[in-house]
Amino acid sequence: MNALIEGMREVRASFDEALSSVDSTEALGELRVRNLGKKGALTVLLKSLGKLSPEERPAAGEQLNALRDEMERTIEAKGRELRARENEAREAGERIDVTLPAKGRCGGSFHPVAQTMHEIVEILQGMGYSVALGPEKEEELYNFESLNMPSWHPARDMQDTFYFPDGTLLRTHTSPVQVRSMLRYGAPLRIVCPGKVYRRDNDPTHSPMFNQIEGLMIDRGVSFPVLKGTLSGLMDAFFGRSLKNRFRASYFPFTEPSMELDIECVECGGSNARCRVCKGTGWLEVCGMGMVHPSVVRAGGIDPERYNGFAFGMGLDRMAMLKYGINDLRLLFDGDVSYFLSGRDA
Ligand SMILES: [Zn+2]
After folding, report:
1. Do 128 and 76 fall into the same domain?
2. Domain boundary at 92, 124, 143, which?
3. Is it the case that residue 344 has pLDDT exceeding 50?
4. In CATH, what number is assigned to the domain containing residue 241?
5. Ligand 1 centre from 318 Cα, in Å?
6. How many A from CA of 2 to the centre of ligand 1?
7. 154 vs 120: which has the higher pLDDT
8. Model's pTM, two decimal places?
9. CA geometry: angle at 286 spanning 282 and 287, to 5°?
């Protein structure tokens, strides 16, 4: 019995001494194993209880258990203290520098058509044009009549139109914004009108909804060379280099004379007879235009004897496809961005 008490005193003394020099949770774990583990000093003493007489055993057992509990509590308290200190040290070493650039940032980007619209608008704003917008649900008056297309006009057959039961319609072009803007702002006027338009077309090269952009200049003595200079400047700025161009006679009811602009093929420059973009012609039709018809100027509330002007319009979707090398119109509308994230023709 005395030997046991002496043993407990020794275990306790060496435990206290070792504890005072423990400075990490790892060292504390080792101290625990040395004393309370399967072969630990206190465990050895507990096992020696069997050597005592039955009378001595209960009191000795009680003392040993009390010592074990106390050592457990001491280790637990020391553990909490050490863990807190270690966390503090780790946090101090992990200071965050909020001025560092973020990693793997993916903030999204503009749709190619929106990007194209912004680019063309910006170029024209540099030439003094302002953005004008109009309703997509339009009246026949602005979509057709004011644009020199009365109900009997054959040009109405060129555009299959979505009508509402009340006789209004989904605009078939952005041109109604021209008349609305002339009526609202008068002359002189320089506007660019981007927007969605609708026609009853749906096949691989036509979508029932597509995007146009249109420009209008009304002033005194506007000449055809100004129109040609504006358009060739716009194309060169948009594609980022000087492109050959040609103007061909055409027909639109709201302009007279009317022209179409071709630019050299941006894909092959006319050097590839099998080019899929220009189909070997070396030219791309990009824009319709002309001098605004006097009756359209008059419909806009402006005296055609005093003012004249020009208008031009083009498909934004086509411009986006040409600039960004997109070969299928449907890719612009189906919402699958993987095509634009991976290689173009992959
Ligand atoms: Zn080509």
Report:
1. no
2. 92
3. no
4. 3.30.930.10
5. 14
6. 107
7. 120
8. 0.67
9. 140
**Cα of 255 to ligand 1 centre, how many Å?**
29
- The string of pLDDT tens digits covering residues 217-249 is 999 999 999 999 999 999 999 999 999 999 999
Q: How many angstroms separate the alpha carbon of residue 271 from the centre of ligand 1?
A: 7
CA of 216 relative to ligand 1 center, distance in Å: 30
Report the domain count for the chain.
2
Average pLDDT, the chain: 90
**Separation of CA 245 and ligand 1 centre (Å):** 14
Q: Within this chain, do residues 170 and 246 fall inside the same structural domain, yes or no?
A: yes
Q: Alpha-carbon distance 33 to 39, whole Å? A: 8
pLDDT digits (tens, 9 = 90+) for 305-334: 999 999 999 999 999 999 998 888 888 887
Distance from the CA of 178 to the center of ligand 1, in angstroms? 33
Where would I find the beta strands (DSSP E) of the chain? 130-131, 137-138, 169-170, 189-198, 209-219, 245-252, 255-264, 283-292, 308-315
Neighbours of 85 (CB within 10 A): 13
User: Given the structure tokens 């080019």, which residue do they identify?
Assistant: 275
CA of 238 to the centre of ligand 1 (A): 18
Q: State the distance from the centre of ligand 1 to the C-alpha of 279, rounded, in angstroms.
A: 6
